[in-house]
Design brief:
Length: 372
């Protein structure tokens, strides 16, 4: 963790990168109000870092002034007023060559120069693991910055929870609740696919809270025959429907994750596992099965009070960190307080569901199976 003497801050910038998450606007509002209280000017970078790297795309300016009026009434809004992007990482920026091929180049030095040209003294960057990796490099190149962790997947290391997760779980539970009645009415198996990438937090929390019968998560490779056994068991007990919650990164024993798309410079896009699980259940059991993919519905909507509060705390803490001389750190929640941790430590390991988790034990005690 770096704490040193820096020149006084006059201008601070905010960027939001990667996928959107409920609570981003609350962070922005907290940063703006906290910074203005200290007499700093605040600027927002459009669409991740595109506002600086692709200024020609923003006739009105890729860097915009943020004021009290700008952030009035945005705490409850989903998304981000600055826009975001999970493409065109400055570390692996795609350049289209005349022969039709694509070459990736590192534009991080150019990005640091752009901050200097705009007389930005410090940056508060909000994002997930990809954005944190970029932030870590920019910090090493001398840019004074503090990171705020963001992901609905809750898979970032060194923080107890990230904002957006509670909202995503709440919507997933509401959806599962609705599916119970239609599944029971028709005697069907309902497979609900949720986001989470390589971590099963959303699937686990929503599955247990939503009274699912089967939960499939990346941390526990599944045997589809075990899933079908549970379906048959419920039929024998007089419950002629089954709710299966599956994380997008779940995979069968000895198998691979289901990938929809791979693109240069971007993380592979997961999906399709719900359809595969449903097809296999029908093929083996003969049971009518339906699939619901919640997908980006989990990212949208109004953040819960819990997520709003975390987001506001993170934003205010990021400003305090800069005032305190911190740089190259990430704001983290260690209940009951927030703390600062080096960004490099947060990048060291993905936070996945521990197999000895109390919630996993609770699920098993309730009769939920994980396909193992």
């Amino acid at each position: 963790m770096t704490k040193t003497s820096y020149p006084p801050i006059h201008r601070v910038a905010i960027s939001t990168g990667g996928g959107d998450a409920p609570g981003l606007n609350a962070v922005i509002r907290a940063v703006v109000l906290s910074a203005l209280k200290r007499g700093w000017e605040v600027y927002g970078i459009r669409d991740g870092f595109n506002g600086l790297l692709l200024p020609e795309q923003y006739p009105e300016g890729g860097v915009i002034r943020l004021t009290r009026e700008t952030v009035r009434g945005i705490t409850h809004l989903g998304g981000t007023i600055l826009g975001t992007s999970n493409r065109n990482s400055p570390l692996h920026y795609p350049i289209h060559l005349p022969d039709g091929t694509i070459e990736e180049v590192d534009r991080s030095d150019e990005l640091v120069r752009a901050f200097r040209l705009h007389h930005i003294d410090a940056l508060i960057t909000i994002g997930g693991d990809g954005s944190l990796a970029i932030a870590n490099v920019l910090a090493q190149k001398g840019l004074r910055l503090v990171a705020v962790p963001k992901t609905i997947d809750n898979d970032l290391n060194k923080t107890d929870v990230t904002f957006g997760f509670d909202t995503a779980v709440g919507f997933a539970v509401e959806s599962i609740d609705r599916l119970h009645s239609t599944a029971a009415s028709h005697g069907r198996v309902m497979v609900v696919e949720v986001m989470g990438r390589y971590a099963g937090w959303i699937a686990l929390h929503s599955g247990v809270a939503g009274s699912a019968d089967v939960i499939l998560i990346p941390e526990i490779p599944y045997d589809i025959n075990k899933v079908v056994e549970k379906v048959h068991q419920r039929d024998e007990q007089g419950s002629h429907f089954t709710i299966v919650v599956v994380a997008e990164g779940a995979k069968p024993i000895g198998g691979e994750v289901s990938v929809l798309e791979k693109q240069s410079g971007r993380a592979e896009r997961l999906g399709g596992i719900g359809e595969k699980v449903a097809a296999e259940i029908t093929a083996i059991s003969g049971k009518e099965t339906r699939v619901v993919v919640l997908g980006h519905l989990l990212r949208g909507g109004t953040p819960t009070a819990f997520d709003r509060l975390i987001a506001l705390r993170f934003g205010a803490a990021a400003v305090r960190a800069l005032e305190d001389g911190q740089a190259g750190v990430m704001i983290a929640l260690e209940p009951p307080n927030v703390k600062y941790v080096p960004i490099s430590e947060a990048l060291g390991k993905m936070k996945t569901v521990p197999l000895d988790s109390d919630i996993v034990y609770t699920a098993r005690d309730l009769g939920v199976i994980f396909g193992d």
